[in-house]
Design goal:
Elements: H1 11-22, H2 27-39, E1 44-48, H3 55-68, E2 73-77, H4 85-92, E3 102-106, H5 115-122, E4 131-136, H6 143-146, E5 154-158, H7 164-174, H8 181-188, H9 192-204, H10 217-227, H11 233-244, H12 250-256, H13 261-270, E6 274-277, E7 280-283, H14 285-298, H15 300-320, H16 326-335, E8 355-359, H17 365-376, H18 378-390, E9 395-400, E10 406-415, H19 420-425, H20 427-439, E11 447-455, H21 464-479, E12 483-491, H22 495-503, E13 507-515, E14 518-526, H23 532-540, H24 561-573, H25 578-581, H26 597-614, H27 622-633, H28 639-646, H29 650-674
Parallel strand pairs: 1-4, 1-5, 2-3, 3-4, 11-12
Antiparallel strand pairs: 6-7, 8-9, 9-10, 10-11, 12-14, 13-14
Helix pairs in contact: 2-3, 7-9, 8-9, 9-10, 11-13, 11-14, 12-13, 14-15, 15-16, 16-21, 17-18, 24-29, 26-27, 27-28, 27-29
């Protein structure tokens, strides 16, 4: 087909036209962008909303509007960007030099950890007149609103479902027959992605409308019809691999499939629900989850075989990665275990960038000694100072990107022979050598590895720091040559972390060493008896349960107050999801002691609901009850929606929410300690 000038019409123009025709509604959002673009209403637009709500489509329209206004446009995608300040600044550098530039940041939830750095360090350097749009799943941090300087410069857009008229217009664009619209709207409401997926099925099969009922199986049914008949079993396998791995490359396909990886990769990238990035291909989250669940149910053995092939490929990547790429390689490997208990559950996949790792740099030593003193006392700080001078290359430092301050550091000490000075300086190293020599001493050419960490209290337990430390230790273990023993010292390990180490053949030696007043548990592994390949096989499959020689009669989780409060907050957020509550460490505390495994999650939910309801009794706490009930017991999709239903300003709503959560956490903590509650608010 030719254009008006007689030249062949580029395919890209047709694709662009199709996208424009499928963009409906969003008049208010476009008006806000126009006011910022032409009238300088603000410098930063922050768009947030759930997956599939249309954030990326809105950013594409913003890019068109900016181009029509003669503004240069730069784009950053958090899914493909290394979550570091340096990488972000390199991608967005043009906006710092051009007062008419427009920067569009998509998928910000993948680099949410950079939010503080962005607000405090990057954005204040913008020239007046430049415009930045940030789009992600999560609303901006409350500190945007509490900083007076951002009151004029920030505009927040909460992107929600399409209005009924706009949803009808989208079905017009998709060619949905009139008789099929009611069941499609009943299923999808105004959610753009669900409408598009449903419309794709409805247009192909009008009879499918009789199967559109509003339950959890609908999405699976629609996606099954949308994928339809694939060209061959190999194509089906390629699609399942794409759903299982974090990012799919031709290299990964080649390792997991014996068929033509190049042809399969080309086919995958053309599918309407598979997107491309600089790191590879990935399906939409909804598609990923459904394909995973379908294969697990339909072919459990095929699922296990696929998992093993991908696991082997990614494990080899860990062993061969360049040093700066080790953490990302280990993270990709661990993504395969996101639904099991292979390791302590990562803090989150979207906090990447909040903490950065680096080798020890000149001038860091004095700051790190102060950190060690604050974290563990004077005697431990002396140990840190010794190793900073003795093995500086063994140190890795973890920095908070917003403040630029160190929050933890880790030493992976490679010791080839016992040294009296080292043992005298560090009781942990002395204990490691004592254990190794008493059991199976290193042989000629082998070495002993000792892991030592100093972590500020706020970053212990589940945190991005612990994620990175965990991945660094695993990377060290898998990449080390001629390592006889690894001995990892942990101060006051939680029950979950002890169980995690045990499942992976890292035996715990309680009270192995004392440094000052603190006792350390040592987790040891003989890599000659169980080498890395065998260890990885246990990680890749279902590890055999660990049976201690003298198990306690009752295994209750004993949590610190910080760990307990973090678990309580997590449980509140997952109150309506029994399968998630069942994983909470609170199910193994005195709160619900005596319950069977199948009843612990139910008992925990009932206890949390009781605590929320109890706030109704106090004159001053009844407002806290209303906010907690609307947020966690109602059906409000977001905090903004809950505040709107309550008729509260969002700042007031957030204040009551924070106070209510603190009240519930304190009541539960008193019940855990004493079986009693804190005094009610009056």
């Amino acid at each position: 087909m030719s254009g008006s000038d007689g030249k062949p019409e580029p395919l890209g123009r047709r694709l662009q036209a199709a996208r424009e025709s499928a963009f409906v509604g969003r008049e208010e959002e476009l008006a806000l962008f126009g006011a910022a673009l032409y009238g300088g209403r603000c410098s930063v637009l922050y768009v947030h909303g759930p997956g599939g709500i249309g954030k990326s489509a809105l950013l594409r329209r913003f890019a068109q509007e900016a181009a029509l206004a003669g503004r240069s446009v730069a784009r950053v995608d958090g899914r493909t960007l290394d979550p570091s300040p340096a990488a972000f600044e390199a991608a967005a550098e043009a906006v710092l030099r051009d007062e008419r530039a427009v920067l569009l940041v998509d998928t910000f939830e993948r680099i949410q950890g950079l939010e503080g750095w962005l607000r405090e360090r990057f954005l204040p350097r913008l020239p007046v007149g430049a415009l930045v749009v940030i789009a992600g799943r999560f609303p901006p941090d409350i500190r945007w609103h509490t900083e007076p300087g951002w009151a004029r410069e920030l505009e927040v857009i909460s992107l929600r479902d399409l209005a009924p008229g706009d949803a009808q217009a989208l079905m017009d664009c998709c060619g949905v027959a009139e008789g099929l619209r009611e069941p499609l709207l009943a299923f999808a409401g105004g959610h753009p992605l669900a409408l598009l997926l449903g419309a794709a099925v409805a247009v192909k099969d009008e009879g499918a409308s009789t199967r559109w009922i509003p339950d959890h199986d609908v999405v699976a049914t629609l996606l099954d019809q949308l994928v339809g008949e694939v060209p061959s079993p190999a194509h089906r396998h390629a699609l399942e691999i794409c759903a299982h791995a974090y990012m799919t490359t031709e290299d990964l396909l080649r390792a997991a499939l014996p068929d033509d990886a190049a042809a399969l990769f080309r086919w995958l990238r053309r599918l309407p629900f598979v997107e491309s990035s600089s790191l590879g291909l990935y399906p939409h989250d909804v598609v990923r989850e459904v394909l995973e669940a379908d294969l697990r149910w339909r072919d459990p053995q095929g699922y296990a075989d696929m998992h093993d092939r991908i696991h082997a490929h990614l494990a080899e990547k860990v062993r061969t990665a360049a040093e700066p790429d080790v953490l990302s390689a280990v993270a990709a490997l661990f993504y395969l275990h996101r639904d099991n208990n292979a390791m302590v559950e990562p803090y989150s996949w979207y906090e990447e960038g909040q903490i950065q790792e680096s080798p020890l740099r000149p001038g860091d030593a004095e700051r790190l000694v102060r950190l060690a003193r604050e974290a563990e006392g004077e005697r431990s700080a002396a140990c840190a100072e010794f190793w900073l001078a003795r093995q500086p290359s063994a140190l890795r430092v973890y920095w908070h990107t917003e403040t630029g301050e160190p929050v933890a550091f880790h030493a992976w000490l490679r010791l080839h022979e016992q040294d009296d000075d080292e043992c005298a300086a560090d009781p942990v190293v002395a204990a490691a050598w004592a254990h190794a020599r008493a059991t199976a001493p290193p042989r000629a050419g082998e070495h002993l590895a000792v892991g030592r960490s100093w972590i500020l209290p706020a970053y212990r337990g589940n945190s991005p720091v612990m994620d990175l430390l965990q991945w660094r230790v695993i990377g060290n273990c898998l990449r080390s040559e001629r390592m006889a023993w690894s001995c990892i010292a942990v101060r006051q390990p939680s029950t979950d972390r002890i169980e995690c180490f045990r499942r992976h053949d890292m035996r715990d030696i309680p009270d192995a060493a004392r440094v000052g007043e603190e006792s350390y548990t040592m987790f040891v592994h003989d890599w000659r008896a169980v080498p890395p390949q065998a260890w990885l096989e246990r990680l890749g499959g279902t590890p055999a349960p660990y049976t201690p020689e003298a198990p306690p009669e009752v295994e209750l989780a004993v949590l610190s107050k910080e760990e307990f409060e973090a678990a309580a907050r997590w449980a509140l957020r997952h109150l309506t999801r029994p399968e998630e509550l069942a994983r909470s460490p609170l199910t193994r505390t005195r709160l619900v002691a005596g319950q069977s495994d199948g009843e612990s999650a139910k008992a925990l939910r009932e206890l949390l609901e009781t605590e929320i309801e109890a706030l109704r009794e106090g004159p001053r706490s009844v407002k806290l009850h209303r906010v907690l009930a609307a947020t966690y017991l109602g059906d409000a999709p977001t905090q903004e929606a809950a505040a709107e239903r309550l008729g509260l300003p969002f700042t007031t709503y957030r204040r009551h929410l924070v106070s209510g959560i603190e009240r519930v956490c304190e009541n539960l903590w008193q019940r855990e300690l004493h079986g009693t509650l804190a005094a009610p608010a009056r």
